[in-house]
Amino acid sequence: MHHTTITTRPRARGGRRGAMLVEMLVAGILLTTVVMLVGPLLLQSNHVRRSAAQRQLATQVAENCLERLVAGETPELARANVARGWDTQKWLPELTLDIAIRDDDARRQATVSVGWMGPPGQAARPVRLTGWIPAPLEDSR
Q1: Domain containing 69: what range?
Q2: Under DSSP, is residue 138 helix (H, G, I), strand (E, B) or coil?
């Protein structure tokens, strides 16, 4: 019968326990690199999200104004009523609302343009909606 014996080497004094300083430095550098690469992406995604929300709100404002014009409100009254009830400076800073009406034969073409200042202080690309509104009724007295 053959017996096998397994011998283990005795540990050297001050054996390896825990992480070494070099490993900690490498881990720190890798973590810093990841944060530096991901950080700007998170900031950019926040900017894109806010810009999309502003564009959606501007489209709703333009649509609301166009609906008021179709319902028979004057451009001045539609402009005054469309932004009532919410803080325009918070959501659409320096809001501009332009209404252009072009007369045709039986109907009129109305174009509503909503502009605002974007986050970096530059004017955002305005939202424009165009629709047909009925001609004003003439008094036949």
Answers
A1: 21-134
A2: coil
Cα separation, 19 vs 96, whole angstroms: 61
| 26-85 pLDDT per residue, tens | 999 999 999 999 988 888 888 889 889 999 999 999 999 999 999 989 999 999 888 787
List the strands of the sheet with 96-103, edge to edge: 96-103, 107-115, 127-134
- Tell me if 40 is assigned to some domain: yes
CA dihedral 19, 21, 23, 24 (to 10 degrees): 90
Q: pTM for this one? A: 0.68
CA-to-CA dists, residue 124 to 50, 54, 96, angstroms: 12, 9, 11
Dist CA 80 CA 88 (whole Å): 12
User: Is there a domain that residue 1 lies in?
Assistant: no
Q: At what angle do helices 21-70 and 75-82 cross, to 10 degrees?
A: 150
* Domains identified in the chain, total number: 1
